[in-house]
Amino acid sequence: MSVARTIVLAHHPVGGGRSSLAPERARPGQGGAARRVPVGATLRYLAPAMEFLAILIVVAVGFFWHFQMRAREQCLDLARHVCDEMGVELLDDTVWLNHMSLRRDREEHLRIRRIYEFQYLDPLREIHPGLVILLGREVESVVTAGEGTLH
Predict the structure, then answer these.
(1) Could you give the CA distance from residue 81 to residue 71 in angstroms, rounded to a whole number?
(2) What angle do CA 39, 5, 25 make, to 5 degrees?
(3) Rounded (10°) CA dihedral 20, 21, 23, 29
(4) The model's pTM
(5) What is the pLDDT of residues 82-123, one digit of tens each?
(6) Of the N and C termini of the chain, which has fewer Cβ atoms inside 10 Å?
């Protein structure tokens, strides 16, 4: 006499104290209470959740990229304005991200702190560095080689 030792998933009523997907041994003569479920079947239940998670990640990356580009444009406009005020030329008309970290603002809210770097030419055609520091959307400071902190 041999007893089948197959793992099956039994259907138990909700609140019956056992999980509805509890493994059981198949017994000879057992009615339709137990059924075999292939491993791939559980993946079908997870597929919609995984698709939703993938979409959320893509949307989050898109929003992050959008806000990064807005911050870069804000820094570029500010660097142009500072260079015009100083009577110097913004080199290559560009800024680049030097450093990014998380910091708290005055109200203790967590914000992204970005440090953008730029270069400018003075009237003697010498190249000097400059920095624009953002905390969230607010300008924390603008630093140039000759003047120090401007804002």
Answers:
(1) 15
(2) 75
(3) 60
(4) 0.65
(5) 999 999 999 998 999 999 999 999 999 999 999 999 999 998
(6) N
